[in-house]
Description:
The chain is α+β, with helices and mostly antiparallel strands and 144 residues long. It is built from 2 helices and 8 strands.
Amino acid sequence: MExxxxxxxxxxxxxxNHEYLLSQRYDPDVPEAHLKxxxxxxxxxxxxxxxxxxxxxxxxxTGLKIAIIKMFPKSISHLWNxxxxxxxxxxxxxxxxxxxxxxxxxxxxxxxxxxxxxxxLDMYDFLPTTxxxxxxxxxxxxxx
Length: 144
């Protein structure tokens, strides 16, 4: 079976109401990910910095322009089993502030976008990698 690697950059985006943006994955081919909650972001492309990747992905998926504030102090590694290959994902995450209020869903792999309060974050079924970043946020008071 083929093995692939990718680098994923996520953004924990806070709006002016101190809510955080979550995205719900739509990926029936990967049951472990399907309909789980995530943070917006995506795969780093050749030649991009991590910040460029996050700004591009955020705009493409959600329509939002963001200000990147700081990187979470940990990267997460996860193996995903697809039908025809195994994928090793390295995931990093940045804390961000929203710069505009135009939110739209524009990605076939996202079922829903939702703003939630900090106190509601433990109520969602997150992807394994995202869950690690949420735990850092909640347990270590990561926000500036």
